[in-house]
Write a structure and sequence with these properties.
By secondary structure, the protein is mainly α. Helix content is about 50%, strand content about 5%. The chain has two domains: about 150 residues, no CATH class; about 90 residues, no CATH class. It contains eleven helices and four strands, in the order H-H-H-H-H-H-H-E-E-H-H-H-E-E-H. The chain has a two-stranded antiparallel sheet. A two-stranded antiparallel ribbon has the order 3-4. A hairpin with a 2-residue loop joins strand 3 and strand 4. It holds the Pfam family DUF8117.
């Protein structure tokens, strides 16, 4: 069974929202999650995380780079843990690990006043719930598994990454309900090209001068490019977008699949189009 979803789905990705002050998702149905992990393709899960991450980072406060980077790291971790390698189907053990990871996310977001509690830990105050979530007798394992062992650095990471897990849990809870009920309006499917048209909702762009926008490449973007290479740009932007850019004279890196942001941005070497010294080195190794 497929699960139709779209960037135009205003229930999942509400428009006009200015902050991440959204109610976190608390619906966790293990059966639905198990079925979704089994039935939905790696491409579907990858684009779910791409769109969820884009929705989240575009609502972060301006100039808060520390939170931006920690949220980016959280989505990179989620993608690494939840998306199967396209050519390597999950084993039962791997699928069980994914189910446990999602269960841990819901343990975290369901913890009483979790956003406030994590902020209090960063500032050295006593948690308002009188017990650190990392030391909680039943929930502590989820916090240490996802964020790491309790210390000041971990508290800072958890306080920044909480925005990613709160936002993603909300989206995934809505999708679980749709899956279980087999209802929901007909939408564009994440895995269907050329209908995937995410534009600036899934990546960050900066405009350095009028009409000159460039893609701000964060660690999550690099992770997606490596994971899907050499198709990473098409996974993020869609086949139609990439084909349009190619007609405009832009090229893809032959090693990682990165898309040029301007004509002749990448160097050509020994018949390869290369975006970075790292890709040039890998291409040279391949030629040998």
């Amino acid at each position: 069974m497929a699960l139709p979803v779209s960037m135009e789905d205003t229930e999942l990705f509400p428009k006009g929202v200015k902050t991440l002050d959204l109610t976190p998702g608390t619906t966790y149905e293990p059966t639905a999650i198990r079925e979704m992990l089994t039935s939905l393709s790696p491409l579907w899960w990858s684009r779910l995380l791409i769109s969820s991450r884009g929705f989240t980072i575009n609502l972060l406060p301006a100039n808060d780079e520390m939170t931006l980077f920690t949220v980016d790291d959280a989505y990179t971790s989620m993608h690494a843990r939840l998306v199967a390698e396209p050519d390597h189907p999950d084993s039962e053990e791997r699928r069980a690990e994914k189910e446990k990871f999602i269960a841990n996310i819901y343990t975290i977001v369901r913890f009483p006043s979790v956003s406030t509690v994590l902020a209090e830990l960063v500032h050295g105050g006593a948690p308002s719930e009188n017990v650190s979530p990392f030391a909680h007798p039943t929930d502590g394992e989820a916090f240490t598994t996802v964020f790491g062992e309790a210390n000041e650095a971990t508290y800072r990471i958890a306080d920044g990454q909480k925005h990613a897990y709160l936002a993603f849990s909300r989206i995934l809870s809505l999708l679980q309900a749709r899956w279980a009920s087999e209802k929901g309006k007909k939408k564009i499917r994440f895995e269907t090209d050329p209908e995937w048209q995410p534009d600036n909702r899934v990546v960050l762009f900066e405009e350095f001068c009028r009409g000159n926008r460039t893609w701000v490449l964060l660690d999550f973007d690099r992770h997606i490019l490596r994971f899907w290479r050499p198709r990473g740009a098409a996974i993020i932007f869609g086949d139609r977008f990439v084909e349009k850019k190619k007609r405009e004279g832009l090229r893809l890196c032959d090693v990682c699949g990165m898309l040029e942001q301007g004509r002749d941005q990448f160097k050509a070497l020994a018949g390869f189009v290369l975006c970075s010294p790292e890709c040039a080195q890998e291409a040279a190794t391949t030629v040998k």
